[in-house]
Amino acid sequence: MARIAAIAAIVILALLPPTRGRAQGDEPYEQPPLNYSATKPRDGVAELETRMAAARPSTGGDKAILSQLLKELRIPLESQVLVFSKTSFQRQIINPARPRALYFSETSYVGWVPGGLIELATIDPQLGPIFYSFDPQAKAPGFVRDASCLTCHGGQFVRGIPGLFVRSLFTAESGEPLFRYGSQVVDFRTPFTNRWGGWYVTGKHGQSAHRGNTLAREENDKLVVDMSRGANIADLSGRFQTRAYLRPDSDIVALLVLEHQTAMQNTLTRASLDCRRMLAYQKNLQVELKEPVTEELVYDSVKHVFEAAALQLVDDLLFRGEAVLPAGVEGSAAFREAFGREAPRTDDGASLKDLDLAGRLFRNRCSYLIYSEAFRALPVELKRRVYARLVSALNPVAPDARYAYLPAEERARISKILRQTHPDFRRFPES
């Protein structure tokens, strides 16, 4: 027995997942079993490239090509948001007079600067976000998988995974970030007053201020910025040539949705990566010890990772710790309609995409990304734990105290929505 224990200890040390390194090549997503950069993605971009080539518009220039791409990806134009800080690899052409436009759906993100490249990120259910660039000026434009994006999206701001994020920072008139005064990756937990530095924001939000629409400067080694000048802005035409873009706005609700979605997608990517690595570790250990190879979780160390991942997933799915929104948040009706257009709905019309905007983003606080292919592709044992935690959190009589912020009527609505619209969840008993 002592010899077996010693062998097991040696094998465990050899097979433990690598720690996160500083160099890109040392990041865990570049190691087995993910092998991010070496693995061909299953995100449909090859087919998209063929469709784009067949239907390339002959007139209209970059905007027409961008419009075609959004149509092919089923990304609504109404999702447009605009960032003017120099925080992209196209920083040399971005400034407050020429912001970068972003458009998004649940599976794709497109960035574009007039006269520049089109950037594309698609969600592969196994690999997470895949990054491409596309030159609309090229004679035969195509999608190039762009490793340079990983400089920021591969560990610098979202550690250990290929990730998506929204940043907020104070920005000078030139568009240069004033890094010494801080930079924040924004998600649904970020206080409202800390959001959107370096972004244009259109829409109403009452008396509360945010960092959007404002330019900052330094005087006598101090930051000078008047956030009240960026509040409740409806018209951006005095700040840049809005006619150069597909829309004239940068909707406040679209920004709020984007921040939730990128954070939730990162949690899905991290959970998938961590648990798949542990499954590979368990399999290798079972082979080394000549034990039966099983998909059932055997070792406590593996179970611990799955339990931790399930807890984080449920916390984010149910918006635990969401920052309170101020009274009076109102965005464009066009985005609201586009966002909810294809939402799965109950027999009485309720959906996980129903917006609230009265202190919180959604009326039914369970993320719509629970329907996503990225969620469906999670390891079975992880999903089983997530569903069990959700059932406990939504229990109508004795819910998990961790989610006590969800009132009984909201828990009932969420449970009904999931049981009527989510094929996997409905198989789990209510208590």
Describe this structure as you would to a colleague.
With 431 residues, the chain is an alpha+beta fold. It folds into 2 domains: 45-251, no CATH class; 254-427, no CATH class. It has helices spanning 2-15, 45-54, 61-73, 150-153, 252-288, 300-317, 333-339, 373-376, 380-393, 408-421; strands at residues 81-83, 100-104, 108-112, 118-124, 128-134, 143-145, 166-169, 183-186, 199-200, 204-205, 217-219, 222-224, 329-330. The strands form 4 sheets. A 7-stranded antiparallel sheet has the order 6-5-4-3-2-1-9, sandwiched between helices. It has a two-stranded antiparallel sheet with strand order 7-8. The protein is globular and about 65 Å long.
Q: What are the main properties of this structure?
A:
alpha+beta; 10 helices; seven-stranded antiparallel sheet; globular; 431 residues; disordered N terminus
Please give the share of residues in helix. 25-40%
Uncertain runs: 1-24
* Count of runs of 4 or more consecutive helical residues: 10
Strand content: 5-15%
- Please indicate the count of domains: 2
Name the helix and strand elements from N-terminus to C-terminus, one letter apiece.
HHHEEEEEEHEEEEEEHHEHHHH
